[in-house]
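Researcher: Last one for today. Full complex below.
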Amino acid sequence: MRLLACATTLVVAALIGACAGTQEAPAVAGTPAAQTMPAASAVLPSWREGRARDAIVKFVNDVTREGSPTYVPPDERIAVFDNDGTLWSEQPLYFQFMFLLDEVRAAAPKHPEWRDNPAFLALAAHDQAALEDHKKELIKLIAVANSGMTVDEYDSAIRAWLASAKHPTLHRPYTQLVYQPQLELLAYLRANGFKTFIVSGGTIEFMRVFAERVYGIPPEQVIGSSQVVKYEMRDGKPTLIREPKLDFVDDGPGKPVGIYRNIGKKPVLAFGNSDGDLQMLQYTAGQTGPHLALLVHHDDAAREFAYDRQSKIGKLDRAWDEALAKGWVVVSMKDDWNVIYPSAAGQ
Amino acid sequence: MRLLACATTLVVAALIGACAGTQEAPAVAGTPAAQTMPAASAVLPSWREGRARDAIVKFVNDVTREGSPTYVPPDERIAVFDNDGTLWSEQPLYFQFMFLLDEVRAAAPKHPEWRDNPAFLALAAHDQAALEDHKKELIKLIAVANSGMTVDEYDSAIRAWLASAKHPTLHRPYTQLVYQPQLELLAYLRANGFKTFIVSGGTIEFMRVFAERVYGIPPEQVIGSSQVVKYEMRDGKPTLIREPKLDFVDDGPGKPVGIYRNIGKKPVLAFGNSDGDLQMLQYTAGQTGPHLALLVHHDDAAREFAYDRQSKIGKLDRAWDEALAKGWVVVSMKDDWNVIYPSAAGQ
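Model: Here's the assembly. Have a good evening.
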């Protein structure tokens, strides 16, 4: 799949680039703490004892303790999570982008004019260098391939793809590549009155198809990038049609904007994994009241992937520096998580 | 206030026009039904016995009866309400627009260049005809007056205005001009597992300031028109700044788009009052499963206002025809509501 990593998504201009170059780096969090919060092993069984888990449990205890100065009323307990690389894997290429490329391939028979298109030829030939040369053309193909259909048709296409596609090297359905410790954290937060949201650079429709079933996050709590849709009556039926035009990029500085626009409250907890999450973390850490900012550090080449500063996908560089400078919690996959994927995935 | 009604809002191009010409028209709903649903008078005390109340109670009973073919699971019980003219009054001019004009007046001392501006002179002189002639210029003034500030500053400005401003003819704070029967309906729906949303052409920030306190609808369930906001660090503090640029118009065909983008589920109940709600009602009525589409008809000149087909504000013409043709529930304020405003407002 490496060749695919050099293309560009339709929806997030920031994703332009080649696929992950991995780089090992020392873990930051995961230092065993002197004191473990009570019951942490019961509520977060896939989290190892350590600074990261302690910070989470302490924060939840703090904001739920009525009468304490750190108490936060339930309707302000807003927790926002990035998706790619934070709730599920993102290597060697954002799973959503794999879907988009598959859509281009699937649409090819209806587009004989693509026969001589250099981007399509590069895609068909798995020619990474040629794809790099024809990025802009590839974006146009993606736009054509996933526009013009109704949102219900698009929804079905995503469902069908997720039901059958498997990760190229891990050989599991993508929805089994979610992180077990994060599923536990989401449930733990909700059990403590938090409302959990996804705030991702990925498109809303792709995530919404599985977010409720897999993460327990309903569609109305999924914030993402979006393509313009247009309302029209088609054969007397009210219909929303996908237009080949970008609407909103929910990435980088777009994340606080998306949070403001869709939630209208400042989160008290934000969890990301890359520089695309920096502003969301800053915005959350800018809370005058209690708050918790966390980053997943992908440092586990054996069980998942190891990448950070040099990676084109999920690059963690500026946000890492800021986390270190400001004391945000950096979660080491290797040290802080004793399980990566749910056991249903065969782990 | 008549002169103000001829200006244009910054956020909703469709609102251009003069203020409401009122017109009496025969009530459509409100015919006493042979059978009253049990307990309706207890849960909806401000709704008179009749077809409209019966339709609501029957629908709620239908979708909540487990095992019945009309059962709808709680997570699909999405109810969407227009705001202006559906949840509170909107005459002689959308209350939000009164705020925007007051903001222009308040900003004037900081803008000596407005001294000779024909739109500002018309506004200051309450010269309706001149305002009509300088609509575009007025929009620019509004854009300048409510841009450049942080979202928190803007939020404070709205709060301050709502706390002190009073309706020009009804002499009550605007937040006391909400409809008591609708407050009961919102509570009744929520008690029956519905999630209630506002889907309005008004801007989200204006509604969010009072929607939770007054309607019980939290900010994340308010969908509206929006202006572009930009993330930036200001004095080391993460900040969202208002830009003088329209982002999204949540009116007319924009309403199903806003619903799709922000909720991602098709509503089962939609309540509007004007042609701006037509597409939202069509979209909801396009549900294959159980659904209920309702319209408030403003036919109560004595207790509120009477206007419909000829009104520039809250025009009800095409949506009314479609409601009659399709059997949507048309709620007569005069016949179906025994109270208009909450008693705290002195009624």
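Residues 119 and 133 of chain B are 8 Å apart (CA to CA). The two ends of chain B are 23 Å apart (CA to CA).
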